[in-house]
Amino acid sequence: MKSFFALTLAALLAVLIAGCKPASSPSAAKSSTPPARVITENDLTTIMLQPEAEQRLGIATAALEVKQVKRSRTVGGELLLPLGRTENSSNTAAASSKSIFSLLPAMTPAELVRVGELQIDADGQIAIARVELAAAKIALERAENLVANNAGTQRGVDEARTRVQLAEAALNTARERRALLGAPLFEAVRKDVLWVRVSVYAGDLNQVDRRAAANVSSIGGSRNESPRLARPVDVPFSPTAAPATVDLFYEVENADAKLRPGEKVSVAVPLQGETESSVVPAAAVLYDIHGGTWVYENTAPQTFTRRRVEIRFVNEGGAVLARGPKPGVKVVTAGAAELFGTEFGIGK
Hints:
- The protein is of the alpha+beta class.
- It folds into 3 domains: 46-69 and 277-343, conserved putative lor/sdh protein from methanococcus maripaludis s2 fold (Beta Barrel), CATH 2.40.420; 71-90 and 187-274, Beta Barrel (Elongation Factor Tu (Ef-tu), domain 3), CATH 2.40.30; 98-180.
- Helix content is 30%, strand content 30%.
- It has helices at 2-20, 41-44, 51-57, 109-148, 154-180, 336-343, and strands at 46-48, 60-63, 65-80, 193-201, 214-218, 228-232, 238-239, 245-253, 264-280, 286-287, 293-300, 303-315, 318-323, 330-334.
- A hairpin with a 2-residue loop joins strand 12 (303-315) and strand 13 (318-323).
- Helix 4 (109-148) packs antiparallel against helix 5.
- The longest helix is centred in the middle third of the chain and has 40 residues, at 109-148.
């Protein structure tokens, strides 16, 4: 009987001891859960469309091309009123060689005002000389009529003729003095045409293509705004107060009156020679809220990946890239804005 109770107690103790042992944790290497896939930046900027969606958005692609583009250098510029230009003059280089036109670009605003005042005074002297000449001619005509009617003397005719000659000489002198002051500065303030003054390092002057047009852009303006072409103005180089720099001048159209005299602008000055660069249509470039520039690359059928690009400048031929996709890849040339809206959930 005692042995039965002893065996029963031993069995109970064995069960209790087995129940108190901790359960072993499963090994992580034996987990049946698949590991999470690593999400890359390309996955976040890739859009896959259905064929009907691609057609609805009007997507068009083209291969990225490498073209010969003119070299340029971007510098700061300042807009000015077109010195020495009037409504009837078509070229500022037509100014007289005896005028101070070549000095005008280097003058301060106060000096320009003083020149304008001198021009007004000289115009007044011309008007006075014309009146005096007209009066002298009338007096000569009267003296000649009196002699013809035997009522005057030859001496009176000679004196009247002398006064006419003096009046003509005075008028010619007034005109010569006025010519020295150049074309009128403030006769016609034309804001539909402005000048752009840019300072260029004297050592780079030989690299500038003076016959090519520059590109003028507003500082802080819209990146989608196309630059304005500025034709070179044929004036002598003007030294500046800054050491080893000279001023160059370009003429830009301002029919929409968006540009203002005194405004600072960005000017892409053309340089001699050409270089090869990747070029895409300006409509293919997108701008984010931080000013970053992007294009969409067609990586597979109905698949588009947004790629970051760096733009050197924009001209009439498109956007010239300093960095971006490799030449030959297909980029979206139409419908890029619609893809941008689709990617961020704001497209139709």
